[in-house]
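Need a sequence for this fold. Nothing fancy.
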């Protein structure tokens, strides 16, 4: 039996393992079994907390500086570079286990080093330089009569953001099947469907639903909220720098920070561990 924790951030939920020495190495089939909502624990993804020193290839690529590595898998067992909600839940787990000082935490990920800070009610994470991609993919989603143009956004992992006309159109979407993106993105893509709600007092507001690569429709996606904020800000002409993103599971905030390597996104939101147990799946 292996000890696990279950955590969530705005309803994006994760099975978490603490595996300091990197001994567990779950197979894709085991990840899918853990995340299965009927036969397993149930989650949108698996997060394994491992000491970076136990993962020499990642330690070399990151160049040191991060004691802990967040190894992220989607619910279907596929590997993802980054998880914006997951990194806050990861920080909460390390805090509760007494394994790190989370007032200022440095985390190794497949997308690079990420900085996380404890704030009132949750955590803020610098998700790095966000890049808008070229081209205008066409997206077909269940419930939309015609294909809509999208915006590629790289948040360390790939996203396509599509603007919808209004909240009724957002509510009527059927995201049981993955939206089709044309031309297709090799390796798959996360798709955010957004309705801009306006700008007031220097803060933009968006409502969003998401279909995550490897997990299906989820109640929230942190990197997706960042992608949605950056695409909407781009469509609005490059401002404002603070965004409120409402997802089915709650609200997160995105702040844009100008840095020498580009515009960084700070993602702020809640994170909690909801239960712990032992699993026979591993
Ligand atoms: N839910 C996450 C993103 C998880 C990875 C994503 N499904 C992918 O495959 O890139 C988030 O909060 O960012």
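Here you go.
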């Amino acid at each position: 039996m292996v000890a696990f924790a279950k955590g969530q951030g705005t309803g994006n939920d994760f099975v978490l393992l603490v595996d300091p020495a990197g001994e567990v190495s779950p197979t894709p089939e085991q990840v899918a079994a853990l995340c299965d909502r009927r036969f397993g624990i149930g989650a949108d993804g698996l997060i394994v907390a491992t000491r970076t020193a136990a993962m020499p290839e990642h330690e070399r690529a990151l160049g040191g500086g991060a004691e802990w590595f967040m190894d992220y898998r989607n619910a279907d067992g596929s590997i993802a570079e980054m998880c914006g909600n997951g990194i806050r839940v990861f920080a909460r787990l390390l805090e509760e286990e007494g394994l790190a000082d989370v007032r200022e935490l440095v985390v190794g990920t497949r997308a690079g080093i990420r900085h996380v800070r404890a704030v009132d009610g949750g955590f803020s994470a610098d998700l790095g330089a966000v890049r808008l991609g070229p081209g205008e993919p066409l997206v077909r989603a269940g419930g939309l009569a015609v294909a809509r143009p999208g915006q590629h956004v790289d948040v360390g992992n790939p996203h396509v953001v599509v603007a919808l006309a209004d909240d009724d159109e957002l509510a009527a979407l059927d995201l049981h099947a993955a939206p089709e993106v044309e031309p297709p993105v090799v390796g798959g893509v996360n798709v955010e469907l957004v309705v801009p709600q306006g700008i007031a007092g220097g803060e933009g507001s968006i409502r969003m639903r998401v279909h995550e690569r490897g997990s299906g429709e989820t109640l929230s996606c942190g990197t997706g909220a960042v992608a949605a904020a950056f695409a909407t800000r781009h469509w609005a002409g490059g401002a404002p720098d603070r965004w409120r993103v409402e997802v089915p599971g709650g609200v997160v905030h995105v702040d844009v920070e100008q840095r020498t390597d580009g515009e960084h996104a700070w993602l702020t939101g809640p994170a909690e561990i909801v239960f712990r147990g032992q699993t026979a799946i591993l």
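For context: The chain has a mean pLDDT of 98.
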